[in-house]
Design brief:
This protein is α+β, with helices and mostly antiparallel strands. It has a single domain, classed as 2-Layer Sandwich (Alpha-Beta Plaits), CATH 3.30.70. It has 2 helices and 4 strands, in the order βαββαβ. A two-stranded antiparallel ribbon has the order 1-4. A hairpin with a 4-residue loop joins β2 and β3. It binds iron/sulfur cluster (SF4) (2 copies).
Length: 58
């Protein structure tokens, strides 16, 4: 279950700067997580100022 970044993202880049595996990149309208590389550490959710990253339950 990889994390995903929801529409709450304001594009600050903190998650990408802190992801231990570097799987977050800047997308068209928000930052995006590569689900195949995410190790589900939760760091992105911890550092995000608006709580945009969430576990992807799909
Ligand atoms: Fe990166 Fe961890 Fe967030 Fe996955 S949960 S995108 S590995 S910071
Ligand atoms: Fe978006 Fe949160 Fe990442 Fe900032 S830390 S780019 S607001 S998901």
């Amino acid at each position: 279950m990889a994390y995903k970044i929801t529409e709450k993202c304001i594009g600050c880049g903190a998650c990408a700067a802190n992801c231990p595996v570097g799987c977050i990149s800047q997308g068209d309208s928000r930052y995006e997580i590569d689900p195949n590389s995410c190790i589900e550490c939760g760091t992105c959710a911890e550092v995000c100022p608006v709580g945009a990253p969430e576990p992807n339950k799909e």
